[in-house]
Amino acid sequence: MTDKCKTIPSPVGALTLVASDAGLRAILWEKDRPGRVKLGALEEAPDHPVLREAERQLGDYFAGKRARFDVPLDFRGTDFQKSVWAALLTIPFGETRSYGAIARQIGRPSAVRAVGAANGRNPISIIAPCHRVIGANGALTGFAGGLAAKETLLAIERGAGKA
């Protein structure tokens, strides 16, 4: 089955939203690394209900009016990756966690590097907030959207009221 997509403007560049009938599958960055997220054929569908809802919720987030997302998600990956992505969803708005903290949370304390790799393959950036994961020393580390986008997202969350 062909997934549906739509590209929207944002403060961190153009984002391509991808959805199945089950939910949001991906948010792709303007200069995303090819193959970072495995997708099949895509068909433009700007009126797809999941894409419209994701666009609305992201718009609220960027405007500082939303701290939680409730658009349905359709994660596809290994069981390990899905456990990491589920852990991302538990990081509170405006807070950060280290890769080590995520590894401990999923019961794999020695899997810090694997957590980093799964984080880098997170298909639903922003909503599954991989931007909230930082190095153990507090430094911003790699991010598919680029470190400037990561800084922008964290700044939005620092400046926004809890919606």
Automatic annotation (TrEMBL):
Tell me which Gene3D superfamilies the record gives.
Methylated DNA-protein cysteine methyltransferase domain (3.30.160.70), Winged helix-like DNA-binding domain superfamily/Winged helix DNA-binding domain (1.10.10.10)
Q: Which GO terms describe its biological process?
A: DNA alkylation repair; methylation
Pfam (any one): Methyltransf_1N
Organism, as annotated: Sphingomonas naasensis
* Record keywords, A-Z: Cytoplasm, DNA damage, DNA repair, Methyltransferase, Transferase
Q: Which reaction does it catalyse?
A: a 6-O-methyl-2'-deoxyguanosine in DNA + L-cysteinyl-[protein] = S-methyl-L-cysteinyl-[protein] + a 2'-deoxyguanosine in DNA; a 4-O-methyl-thymidine in DNA + L-cysteinyl-[protein] = a thymidine in DNA + S-methyl-L-cysteinyl-[protein]
Q: What is the official name of this protein in its record?
A: Methylated-DNA--protein-cysteine methyltransferase
* Class in the EC hierarchy, top level: transferase
InterPro entries from the UniProt entry: MethylDNA_cys_MeTrfase_DNA-bd (IPR014048), MethylDNA_cys_MeTrfase_DNAb (IPR036217), MethylG_MeTrfase_N (IPR008332), MGMT (IPR023546), MGMT_N_sf (IPR036631), WH-like_DNA-bd_sf (IPR036388)
Q: What does this protein do?
A: Involved in the cellular defense against the biological effects of O6-methylguanine (O6-MeG) and O4-methylthymine (O4-MeT) in DNA. Repairs the methylated nucleobase in DNA by stoichiometrically transferring the methyl group to a cysteine residue in the enzyme. This is a suicide reaction: the enzyme is irreversibly inactivated.
The active site annotation covers: 130 (nucleophile)
Q: Name one GO molecular function term.
A: methylated-DNA-[protein]-cysteine S-methyltransferase activity
Against HAMAP family, the record matches this protein to: OGT
Q: Which GO terms describe its cellular component?
A: cytoplasm
Methylated-DNA-[protein]-cysteine S-methyltransferase DNA binding domain sequence ranges: 79-158
The listed locations are:
Cytoplasm
Which domain of life does the UniProt lineage start with? Bacteria
* EC number annotated for this UniProt entry: 2.1.1.63
Task: Give residue ranges for domain Methylguanine DNA methyltransferase ribonuclease-like.
Answer: 5-75
More about this protein: This enzyme catalyzes only one turnover and therefore is not strictly catalytic. According to one definition, an enzyme is a biocatalyst that acts repeatedly and over many reaction cycles.
